[in-house]
Amino acid sequence: MMFRFLRLFALAAACACAQDPVFRTDVSLVRVDAQVTAGGAIVDELGKDDFTVQDNGQPRTILYCSQEEERLDLMLLLDISGSMETSVRRLAAASRAALRELRPGDRVAVADFNTESFLIAGFNDDLGEVQKTLDRVVDLRFGGGTHILSAIYDAAGYFLKQQDKQRRRAILILTDNFGQSSESEKKVVNRLWAADVVVCGLIVRPRGQTLEFSWPGGEDMLGVAEKTGGETVNANDPAQAFREMLRRIRRRYSLYYEMPPGKPGTVRRVALDLCRQVKSRYPKVEVLARKGYVVPKSKN
């Protein structure tokens, strides 16, 4: 299913960023959005020579690496099933402080879901208007089931319609992560890879339950997040978790390498890692990055 449109604010025109990389137009590039942490803390100021990447098992040369430079398109995807009302309201109440983690030119869209997905407001770089949208989520009607993967699939489809490809793309979902079966995880991941979107999660769980807890016959977002290189965190305090997650999304790296020849529509596997010298400096280092991509159709 596609997003049902409730209301769509005017989209602000995106200006070219002076710091964006410039590449030859006849070269197709793969972008890998990556988070690097050591003991849970963000590792900053790495360069392209600090990383290694393989495409279908073959080493590739990283052409460019940046951190925090590219403008961000972020979709907030809110679970409005019956169990989530208190958590969504707490996140909305804390959104003013959280949105300060974003930069001028970043755009935010807001959507919600239960057994269906609804686009509340399209991408907007006026964070004041985004704040007004979040102020109104207290008026949403909560209830129904939870189709997590279907909602993420719809969100990826919305990103696919966006024309500006020179922006980082992320979905941040607030959910209890207890979903009813709604969509194939493989199908969802392939669409996210095609749209170049990372999925991160704020997960609200009853006391004593870990993020990995699941129930038979249900679905969750953990596999989707892991395959797109996203992070999931405990959000029993949604206010604090929301601001911290925006900060961490904003400090991810963007790395580019030349795409090898491949048949359009096929899936290729990506393995991003750090070089030996960086690993020796940060013994507990962890890299979160997409595990693959879909070869796009020719522009001709």
Instruction: Count up the helices.
Output: 8
Query: Based on the structure, what is the oligomeric state of the protein chains?
Result: single chain
Would you tell me the overall average pLDDT? 88
Secondary-structure-based class equals alpha/beta
Strand order of the largest sheet: 1-9-8-7-10-12-14
Radius of gyration: 19 Å
Which CATH C-level class of the largest domain is it? Alpha Beta
How many domain units? 2
Tell me the CATH architecture of the largest domain.
3-Layer(aba) Sandwich
Report on this structure.
A hairpin with a 3-residue loop joins β8 and β9. Helices cover about 25% and strands about 30% of the residues. The protein is of the alpha/beta class. Residues about 5-20 have low confidence and may be disordered. It has a seven-stranded mixed beta sheet, with helices on both faces. Strands 2, 3, 6, 15 and 17 form a five-stranded antiparallel beta sheet that branches. A four-stranded antiparallel beta sheet has the order 5-4-16-18. The protein folds into two domains: about 30-65 and about 265-295; about 70-250, von Willebrand factor, type A domain (Rossmann fold). It has helices spanning about 85-95, 95-100, 125-135, 150-160, 185-195, 220-230, 240-250, 275-280, and strands at about 5, 30-40, 40, 50-55, 60, 60-65, 70-80, 105-115, 115-125, 170-175, 180, 200-205, 220, 230-235, 255-260, 265-275, 285-290, 290-295. The protein has eight helices and 18 strands.
